[in-house]
Amino acid sequence: MKRIITFGTFDVFHIGHINILERAKELGDFLIVGVSSDQLNYNKKNRYPIYNQQDRVKIISALKFVDLVFIEESLELKLEYIKQFEADLLVMGNDWEGRFDWVKPDCDVVYLPRTPSISTTEIIEVVKSIK
Ligand code: C2G
Q1: How far from 19 is each of 24, 44, 92, 110, CA to CA, in Å?
Q2: pLDDT value of position 43
Q3: Domain residue spans in the chain?
Q4: Which class does domain 3-129 fall in?
Q5: pLDDT value for 92
Q6: Could you tell me whether strands 3-8 and 68-72 are parallel, antiparallel, or unpaired per DSSP bridges?
Q7: Which residue in 109, 61, 68 sits closest to 88, CA to CA?
Q8: Which residue CA neighbors atom 28 of ligand 1 most closely?
Q9: Count of CB atoms within 10 A of residue 129's CB?
Q10: How far is CA 124 from the centre of its chain?
């Protein structure tokens, strides 16, 4: 039984999010998803997500290939979460390439290619530009 863990904000849920979660699940048997808290997002990006954490958790929990969802309160707690949920493999998109290699003594790490041409930021910009 291989346990996979991944993290993300998953704000304004889109096809890139589905693709990474689906591919993550294919690498093992049980998929655990850490959804970044509203506060963590504010600290990182200087703005709150469009969808609040409760709604983002509800959306991710509804996906058939996701087995367990929790709120990620801090980027630095990666290893604690990995241990708490007994994960064997950390999966992230390659915009994070190398950034979490420091957990490697305790957990394998794979960075998967991002889905091209879509991001939450881009969607927000497009919607803003519609007159
Ligand atoms: N992603 C992707 N393709 C896209 C957009 C996103 O594969 N076109 C992936 C990202 O690489 C990430 C996941 O989807 O692995 C979630 O992306 P975000 O919601 O942007 O997550 P982020 O804000 O980067 O938070 O602890 C890490 C953070 O919580 C990650």
Answers
A1: 8, 24, 12, 15
A2: 96
A3: 3-129
A4: alpha beta
A5: 97
A6: unpaired
A7: 109
A8: 8
A9: 7
A10: 19
Residue with token string 């881009």: 122
Give, using CA atoms, the residue closest to atom 7 of ligand 1.
114
Residues contacting residue 72 through CB under 8 Å, at least 6 positions apart: 7, 34, 35, 36, 37, 40, 81
Percent of the chain residues past pLDDT 90, beyond the cut: 98
- Choose the residue to mutate in 92, 97, 100, 111 for probing ligand 1, maximizing ligand atoms within 8 Å of C-beta: 92
Instruction: Dump pLDDT digits (tens) for 114-125.
Output: 999 999 999 999
Per-residue pLDDT at 131: 84
Q: What is the mean pLDDT of residues 66-71?
A: 98
